[in-house]
Amino acid sequence: MNASLQPQRPTGAFVGASWAALLVGAITFLVGLWNAAMPLNEKGYYFTILMYGLFSAVSLQKSVRDRLEGIPVTGLYFGLCWVSLTLAVLLLAVGLWNATLAASEKGFYAMSFLLALFGAVAVQKNVRDLAHFKDDAGFADGQNGN
Questions:
Q1: In a domain? residue 97
Q2: What PANTHER family does UniProt report for this protein, alphabetically (predicted)?
Q3: Which of 26, 61, 16, 68 minimizes the C-alpha distance to 46?
Q4: Strands (E), 26-138
Q5: Which structural domain, as residue segments, surrounds residue 107?
């Protein structure tokens, strides 16, 4: 790892807030879909966009972090991560723009989607940071880290 980029241990409050953002955003989005008066195929579209968005956001965060730590990430994969996240957001925007929903419902889905993406990125960062400190503690105690 680059010596100038030492991660700091995330606080319990930040870890909790990150998990809360992920869970509140995703669960709110899903409850909204469950209760929505839309065809099942439309619900499936929005569900797939949520899952795709969460995966692409975490993958992009991991790729950025890997590069910062000197772990090789190909330019192709890094670019695909950006394209995937952009596509997920654009697909949601196009779907909501063309949906026959009230403006408040469209805003509800957009905001819960973005909250879930933020939460997923923050949780991934915390998991990575905490794993770094766990590994360091294991080696400091004379353990082999396995």
A1: yes
A2: INNER MEMBRANE PROTEIN YIAA, INNER MEMBRANE PROTEIN YIAA-RELATED
A3: 26
A4: none
A5: 12-139
* Exposure letters 106-139 (e unless 16+ CB within 10 A, then b): bebbeebbbbbbebbbbbbbbebbeebeeeeeee
How far CA 145 is from CA of 2, 14, 132, 134, in Å, comes to: 20, 26, 11, 9
Residue spans of beta strands (DSSP E) within 51-90? none
Average pLDDT over residues 108-124: 96
Q: Which residues contact 132 (CB under 8 A, 6 or more apart)?
A: 1, 7
Count Cβ neighbours within 10 Å for each residue of 15-39 and write b for 16 or more, e otherwise.
beebeebbeebbebbbebbeebeee
Find tokens 């499936």 and name the residue: 44
In a domain, 19, yes or no: yes
In terms of Cα–Cα distance, which of 89, 95, 94, 81 is closest to 113? 89
Reported pTM = 0.83
Residue 96 clears pLDDT 50, i.e. is over it:
yes
87 within a domain of the structure (yes/no): yes
Mean pLDDT of 139-143: 47
Higher pLDDT, 42 or 143: 42
Q: Count structural domains, the chain.
A: 1
